[in-house]
Amino acid sequence: MADLTEELEDESSEEGESMTAAEVLQKLEEAWLNEKFSPDLLEIKNDIVDCMLEQIKEMEENIRRAKKGDFRVGIHKMEIDRIRYFISSYLRTRLQKIEKYTAHVLEQEKARGSDETPQMSPDEYTFAKEYSENMENHFKVLALRHMPPNLQALDPKHTVMRPNLDSYVFLRVNEDTAGVLVEEETAEAGEEVIDLEKGDQLIIRYRPVATLVESGAVGLI
Amino acid sequence: MVFVKDLRKEFYEKIQHQRVLVLVSFDVDALCACKILQYLFQCDHVLYTIVPVSGKQELENAYVENSEGIKHVVMIGCGGNIDVVETLQPENGTVFYISDSHRPIDVTNVFNQVQVKLLMNQADDDLHDIPDFDEVFREDESGDEDSGNESDTSEPSGKRRRFDEAALEKRRERRLWEEKKKQILFEYTQFSKYGTSVSKTMFELAWKMSKDTNDLVWLACVGVTDQYAHGKIDREKYIEMVSDLQMHVSRHNHSLLKPLGGNYHLAALDKDKSASDTFLDALDALNRSNVQYMEKGLNLAKKQITAIVKQVQSFLDMNQVISAGPFLYAFIQEGTPDAKFFSKPICLQTLARFTLEAYCAVSKSRKAKTLPLILGAPLDVASGTMLIVGIPPFSSKDVGKNFFGKAFEQAAVGTNARTLQDSFDEPVMQMKTEDKSKFFDALISILQ
Amino acid sequence: MFGEKALELIKELQRCLDGSLPPFNEEGVRQVLEEMKALFEQNQGDVSATVAGETGLFAGVQLRHAALERNKRCLLAYLYNRIQQIKKMRWEFGSVLPQDIRYNLSEQEVQWFNRYNKCLANYMRSIGEDGGLDLTQDIKPPKTLYIEVRCTTDHGEFETQDGNVLVLKKNSQHFLLRSECEHLIRQGILEHIVH
């Protein structure tokens, strides 16, 4: 896969370092798995998505130029299908979470400090807002506005769905991480702290490791 | 002649990177061949469209509907005995690859150098009687003198009608040639018969490409056996082909295949017969792994054989097999239970063979064995049509050699009977039931 | 009993868990809303009476309020779950719903669908630098590049990625790029033949 191993300048990465296409693909796969298995909506990896879409375009161009019957064409097409599946599935998973937890993700976005990076891309945010309006309008027109005045509002306590951060996840440790607080101290037991060693695989509650997933220190599997 | 010598180079490699349309007829041999080809296409990512066709009309429709952008058409079990270019009116540059066991091959297909390629072994016996090119085609045919002269008659004659010995001689010679051509073509097309199994041909292609597998040998075996079971080929030809395949069987495995073959074969065979629109089911049924379909097929096969036995019994008990002089005939009455089975050509043909065999066995007349049989069955009561098939005499040495195709055609032309020879098998015809008697009168006088 | 009509609506949802969508139960929804109106008016009457000095009405008001809350919840659940079903169909059938399904939608649901269509399309168009990405494709991880499919209905013309035009007629069988016919398989027009 010559054009996949080509050095690609990944302009948008913070340090300005360059990544090979294969490394970007690797990142995409990680992001996809994390998104698939985390209960919460994670930070969007827009750069990776854009970069891989660009890569697909290049590969398609190469295929167009290739001779008919070149056996590599089949392999390239297959590879394109695979990448496109990762991207689609990744974005689809996010969209499903946004649709399910619309009010929740919008709340979080509102509460976000100016120095924090947003979870959603601007376009996802637009989608979330429009989706939420559409939904509210639907309830209002068909039901709420025909109800007695004291019942016409949507009570967030009952209607906002939130991800269950205490659900359990499988993870693999990518970087040694010491002193992870797994259980807060309670009346019955003391706090529980563990050290994560690279290569470990474990089942654990999502909440204590959420930040480690975002940072890449652990990956969900 | 356009017989393809190297299936791989002259056929497969030509279409390998193209989009291909595959038109395939409704018989088991063609079905098996089609499955073999599908397997090869899938290995090499050849993009194809397969359309099953039950007769000539469907073939035309299927081509019209699916030919857009198609430059390569493979015809399996059909196309050989019709003038493909004339019938389908393809664009220039479209090439037809024909794998068909129907004989005789239409001479226009044989001599079309550009658009028709025949996937057949020229050395086969069944292809020896093809007329020479000069006997059936003339270079000057397009610049036809006769028509030219006719349009001239309106002009003032005078000197144009001068005695021209050379021209006269030329016309005389031409007339002779035409007569001879007619005679040659009549002899060539008089009998319809069958050549090498198409699934065997496709298997050979797979073998040459080193892509032959156990499953493909099995398919070829089914195809060849189908030809034999339906009396299309004689025992010698069957044994010749089977022993060829036997070599491959033993190369692939030792004893597994043979005992299974016969039983499964029935399944595949029947699916095709009892409901023509289940062609695609039949494709599935041919998967060796598809036991469920097999069983369904077997049950249908049993029902069908029971129906055939009952019908034969009833023909004999009621003395319904009647001699018309040059041939025997029998008709299935409207409203007979199981009549729907016999409205399918393949099933009616099978019934015909059993009936003739049974009749010969019980008949006191020695002549019975030398007579062919025509069998008729109601096709569509609402539109008042029937289906008739003709089969050669029981004692005939040339199995599968059948003159009824041509005879039906002539009888129909002579009487203006409303008939349709749509099937790729020539001795199968649809007819308006009310034209039956005049048609049969004509047939008797032709064959006397 | 209070809330019976609302329960009917919920049961109706239960019955169509197989993915079908029955006609919008306008009458059921109206009846629930009417019951709510009646409950509310009774409560108002009782509250006024209490204010005027009558006693012993409090428990009734409480009960009716609980019934009101329950009705509201059921009604919203009914609407919400139908929307989920309709949304699923957007992903399966694309932006144009089959006539028989569309027929079962209330006018307001059709409007919801159109708006959803629009914001989903806008979003998908925004993906990447140019052209966007159709997220309703590539639903399953790719196994093979090409697949064999059989056409189950007379569908008509179909243009492939390489610009060829195929006619999808009932019982024709094709070997195609998996990615380009995936949506036709989901719509039931093509059937994937697995060997």
From TrEMBL, chain A:
Keyword Nucleus: yes
Record-annotated GINS subunit domain positions: 68-141
CDD domains per record: GINS_A_Sld5 (cd11711), GINS_B_Sld5 (cd21692)
Taxonomic superkingdom: Eukaryota
Acidic residues bias spans: 1-17
GO BP annotation list: DNA-templated DNA replication; double-strand break repair via break-induced replication
Positions of transmembrane segments: none
Protein name per its UniProtKB record: DNA replication complex GINS protein SLD5
Primary residence: nucleus
Residue runs in coiled coils: 42-69
Annotated spans, Disordered: 1-20
UniProt lineage: Eukaryota, Metazoa, Spiralia, Lophotrochozoa, Brachiopoda
From TrEMBL, chain B:
Any one GO molecular-function label of the UniProt entry: chromatin binding
Record keywords, A-Z: Cell cycle, Cell division, DNA replication, Metal-binding, Nucleus, Zinc, Zinc-finger
Domain SWIM-type: 22-54
Region (Disordered): 139-166
Compartment(s) of residence: Nucleus
GO biological process, one term: cell division
Sequence ranges of Acidic residues compositional bias: 141-153
Domain of life of the organism encoding this protein: Eukaryota
Segments passing through the bilayer: none
Record-level GO cellular component terms: DNA replication preinitiation complex
Keyword Transferase appears in the UniProt entry: no
UniProt xrefs under Pfam families: CDC45
Sequence similarity: Belongs to the CDC45 family.
PANTHER family: CDC45-RELATED PROTEIN, CELL DIVISION CONTROL PROTEIN 45 HOMOLOG
Protein name: Cell division control protein 45 homolog
Automatic annotation (TrEMBL), chain C:
Organism: Lingula anatina
Family: Belongs to the GINS1/PSF1 family.
Keywords, alphabetical: Chromosome, DNA replication, Nucleus
Pfam families for the chain: PSF1_C, Sld5
Domain GINS subunit span(s) in chain numbering: 55-127
Function: Required for correct functioning of the GINS complex, a complex that plays an essential role in the initiation of DNA replication, and progression of DNA replication forks. GINS complex seems to bind preferentially to single-stranded DNA. Required for correct functioning of the GINS complex, a complex that plays an essential role in the initiation of DNA replication, and progression of DNA replication forks. GINS complex is a core component of CDC45-MCM-GINS (CMG) helicase, the molecular machine that unwinds template DNA during replication, and around which the replisome is built.
Annotated DNA replication complex GINS protein PSF1 C-terminal domain residues: 143-194
UniProt protein name: DNA replication complex GINS protein PSF1
